[in-house]
Amino acid sequence: MAKKEMRILLGNVAIARGIIEAGCHVVTSYPGTPSSEIIPAVVQFKKELGLNTYIEWSANEKVAFDNALAASMTGKRAAVAMKQVGLNVASDSLMSSAYTGVIGGMVIISCDDPGPLSSQTEQDSRFFAMFAKVPVYDPSTPQEAKEMVKDAFELSEKYQVPVILRPTIKVSHAKQSVKMSTIKMLDRQADFKKDPDRWAATPKYRLVLHKKLNETLKKIQEKFENEPRWNYEVGAGRDVPLGIITCSVSFVVLLDILEELNLEKAINVLKIGTPYPFPQKRVSEFIKRHENVLVIEETDSVIESQIFDKSKVLGRLTGDIPLQGELSPDRIYDILAIVLKELGIADLEESGDEKLHQLIEGLDVSVRRPTLCAGCPERAAFYAIKRALPKAIYSSDIGCYTLGLNMKAVDTVLDMGAGITLASGFYHAYHQDKEDVPIVATMGDSTFFHSGTASLLNAVYNNARFILVILDNEITAMTGMQPTPGLGITADGSEGKKISLEELIKGCGVQWIKTIDPYDVENLIKLLKEGRKYTQRSDGGIAVIVARHPCLIRYPDVGVEHPVKVEITEDCDGCLYCLDYFECPALYLSEEKDRVEIDRNFCVDCGVCIHACPKKTIVLMEK
Ligand code: SF4
Ligand code: SF4
């Protein structure tokens, strides 16, 4: 590898490269947008460079965290990657590991999703870092993310604390020409040194560890005060009325806007790449030199809330920055336009993007909502559920199948595993009032492995009654086709142990377990009705149906094993029932014919829609 080689890398690939360049021994993760590309890129670098890195797709984020932490406790370097809500799952371990600390460097990559574009919350992982009391790096570009990963490993190892890197989605998914560096091979043997006062600390020693952590944070804060690589100033280079403090991708967007407006010499900009522990003196000195200071940061007010004297500060807390949503370039432009006008610095034109938005709105173009793919087996399962138990409460979960919402077959989506726990909670709430309400929980295979088992065994243990349909498409589809434990293939493609879903469900204490292909709609409807009866029987309980059919995108060759051509007869009266309740994207209303037709460009010949027309006008095509 030549020292100065440049490669165009995706942000997450640059992060993977940083992990490898830091000589990291163990890398673990649970997939979730925007973090999912990190593990495949580590696998690719491992293969390309012939490294001995241990890489794992773990069953969930806490499992991933603990595996990485154990490696660090033996003196090896370890990284764990997840999306921001994954850090909630791993938070128990994170909070405790801040106290016990680490030996080999440990870096937690928590990718934030302002917007949110693919998450249930917009939470800011920098706040989690503050909450757990661990240092955090906040990169602005893929190149910087790679370098920060390496610095984070050094910091973690020097001060023996876990360190968070939090790229936002625009850093994770941006592409940049990134400078490659040499791979630093760290020859370390696992060497766990027993120290129960630290690794198994009782509350008494936890207090000691907490004090030590606070002292360590002070030292790191001193270091961050004088950290020219990550915290630095650009702009006018002289005293001007306005200073802007910013971070992450907002920093590069802001510089572009200022350059375009020829304002780069009229405003000073302070970039903060290490927001916790907060470089208070560095920031206070910057604020002192300006009449007004604007803080532009996403997703939340982490920098702003840590500033001691906020009397000159404009930001989210003063209502000058929106409280929610991604800070896109047009939003930053608009914020800047208002503040510069108010301060009499510049009178900017209305943003071009704003005009574009108005133009698009004026076109009256209908927005097409996201939908399950044509032929998706999950659609068949939802359709059967709606037909079998139309009055049920439908608790669901996180995955492609959240889109069962469109079919009105999903009433709740809270977090990973809550499809089952909410079903259990609904049952007890009604049962207390002596009411028997049908409840159908839906959950994907990957989500069930992630956090379904504890939810299910708790529900069985506490005598809940509901139907659980596990939508087993034999892959983690939504996040980019990562393997599940049910597949028996590990992160680098080598063979692992295949875990049987049915045996796992049985192990949770469930006695009524049936497996069916959801394409077999009529029999699935019968099974759901049988399951409902089982939940009502005196000796009954929870009924679990494994609806197994491979994802058509991941397994195109076997997805539709027996293709059939269907057509819609002239008897179709355009009632739109099939569009409203079945919603296959290959079905559309032909305005010319005033009836529904099939778009052959989308249709995969699964034949399931035959069941979706109550008037039987969707039929097999005559040969
Ligand atoms: S195909 Fe059937 S359900 Fe769809 S619009 Fe025609 S009659 Fe209605
Ligand atoms: S056969 Fe029907 S359900 Fe299957 S993809 Fe074609 S239109 Fe959609």
Structure keywords:
about 625 residues, alpha/beta, six-stranded parallel β-sheet, five-stranded mixed β-sheet, 22 strands, globular, binds iron/sulfur cluster
What would you call the shape? globular
Strand order of the largest sheet: 3-2-4-5-7-6
Low-confidence stretches: none
Strand portion: 15-25%
Q: Give the overall average pLDDT.
A: 94
Major sheet characteristics? 6 strands, parallel
Rg over CA atoms = 27 Å
Alpha-carbon distance between the termini? 60 Å
Class inferred from helices and paired strands: alpha/beta
Query: What proportion of the residues is helical, as a percent range?
Result: 25-40%
The total of beta strands comes to 22
Q: How would you characterize this protein structure?
A:
The chain is α/β, with parallel strands linked by helices. A six-stranded parallel beta sheet has the order 3-2-4-5-7-6, sandwiched between helices. Strands 9-11-10-12-13 form a five-stranded mixed beta sheet, with helices on both faces. The protein has a five-stranded parallel beta sheet with strand order 14-15-16-18-17, sandwiched between helices. α17 (418-432) links the parallel β14 and β15. The longest helix is centred in the middle third of the chain and has 23 residues, at 203-225. The radius of gyration is 27 Å and the shape is globular. The termini are far apart. The chain binds iron/sulfur cluster (2 copies). Residues 568, 572-578, 595-596, 613, 615, 617-618 line the site of one iron/sulfur cluster (SF4).
